[in-house]
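Quick start: load a record and inspect it. Here is Lipoprotein:
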Amino acid sequence: MRGTISWTAWGGALAALALLTGCSDEEPSLSESSPVQWKACDTLFGAENMTSLRDALGTDGLRFTNTALSANDLRDRLTEEVVEWTPTAKYYSLQEYAPCSFAGSTRFSTTVEWAKDALTTVRSSSSPWRHSGGDVYVDDLSGAGSLQTDVIFPCRVSGAVSAQQERIPLEIRVEVGAGKVSSALHERLVVGLARSLSDELKCANKPNIPDDLKLDH
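Running the structure step on this input writes:
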């Protein structure tokens, strides 16, 4: 009889624990499983824009495809690169970063880097880049399969040499599978990322990034 009571009590304790903790095989939410990526996306694009994006893409099977990189770490790495850069350097390394990328029913990807093209090249008549107002130059590669926009703008970082602003401007790319996201939301995401990076890097030239990038889609 004493053994029966013991097993019954143990079974009751397990049942109570299951009720308190929920089902053990329940999948954690995206914000719980990838908190660094989740916060970085909200910081760089704005929480409202990210909510609209996730609603458009659907949450089923949605997962981050980029390694964890906080907005602060992205800022620090970009700053370190540009402060160490000199116009006379024969070789230098400028990394491409993916601060917010995920996949599900379609793919959403972003990249940020110091541009390989100087602004003189960007402004040339043979360049694919076009002036889109303010300090922004755009190369819109959107087509039937995806919405893809590259943006370049000058960002002078404190501590960098004076030639940096013109020689290595900041370049971003935002791409999302077509058919899921409206062109208006896509443009808000591009503008949001550009403005957030301008703030994070404390661009001393205060680049003018317009709401309307005059994208061709």
